[in-house]
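pinning this so it doesn't scroll away 📌
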Amino acid sequence: MRRKLTKSFSFAIAGIKYTLKTQPNMRIHLGIAFIAVMAGVAFQIPSSEWLALVIVVSFVFILEILNTAIETLVNLYTEDYHELARIAKDTAAGAVMVAAIMSVCVGLIIFLPKILNWLY
């Protein structure tokens, strides 16, 4: 049982590593998340704002990993152009984009007033 669980975790970690290694957008998301966390520390945001930040950042990471899985499966199925393959890839990428836009909105709600107070 323990060995099976360890193996399961190693597969999951391999998937995350693969996404980080092969997907430039995942590295961008990670960099922006790092900046957001550093800003959260610098501005000493309350736990409710940390919760919002963790949720939106996690959604972006989760969807980028799922987008990679969907693109990989579509590529495994066919290398030829197919309209349904395009739709699958585009909608998966669209889900990541929506999550990223929402995380920017949450970041602005949390940090913009703090930045403005700091500047003025």
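📌 and the second one:
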Amino acid sequence: MGSKREDSARFFGKRNIRGAVITVLLALSFFIPTPYYLYQPGSAEELAPMVTVEGGDKAEKGALMLTTVSSLKASNYYYLAYGYFAPHTEIKRENEVRGDLSEEEYSRLLAHMMKSSQHNAIVAGLRAAEQSVQVRNVGVFLSDFVEGSKAKGILQVGDILHAVDGKKLVQVQELSEYIAQKKPGEKVEVSFTRDGKELKEKVELVEFIVKTTAGDVRRTGLAVHLENETEIDPARNVKINADDIGGPSAGLMFSLEIFNQIVAEDITKGYRIAGTGTITMDGEVGQIGGIRHKVVAASDEGAEIFFAPKDIKQEYDTNAQEAADEVEKLGLPLKVVPVATLQEAIDYLKKLDVKS
């Protein structure tokens, strides 16, 4: 048997080793990434400083504001633990955020979505103010793949398709109609642009199912999701400086700000008006993600009115319902106004009394 001094030395030695191991493990945990993102209320930002319409008037008694969601990569387990306890925080797995897209593909997709959103907002806002704008289709943007597509691995998200078998096709409908005449197993030569480079590749066509309101429809094609890539020539120049705000969800509010700078009447009428929703060139408002966070962001910045996309499709659309539920749950002093079109939002504001 050893002496008490030796036993004590062994005890403290083991304890120091355990302490050192724990310290090392804790230190390493700072560098172990997690497959999660944290989503929280972002900001509600006034649009007048961001949007400039040639010959327009930026003066507003109130304010039109876009709303954002704050996204943070849980780069270690400490951030993840914070997410479980922080108020108004939603935790999502990485594959829920960007699927199986590479960082390059995801960046291309976000850039396209923001560019399209701004083009759509400019067209919708100007046309609502009875201003002319010409739209040119310059290609078809590949935004995703259908399961079973033979194009995956050959084409990439972000590619802009502009010809098939040497035939110029710059709209989704004409490209789809041309390919639909062919049979599964046939190959077509696709001409496309990727990061500014002109490329050509042979792609085998497949049969796939498209879900429609009338039921499932079998089609032949590339089995990809496509969107029109456009260029616009407006009667008035419109500049939108949105910095690092990405995605399409500010479309409705951009178009309202453009409209307000052109028309004689100030449609804000002294109110602080926030909102969200995608916009088409025809002024249709679409559903977005993270609306509960945006409602909180709007309220934090003193918004009194919040435009939310109207829930049109019962089984899919939930924006207006979720926005109203969040306002009621948190007791926010905010009126949620569901709208299906830009014109509905304009009509609502026109009927408001001027704030005293």
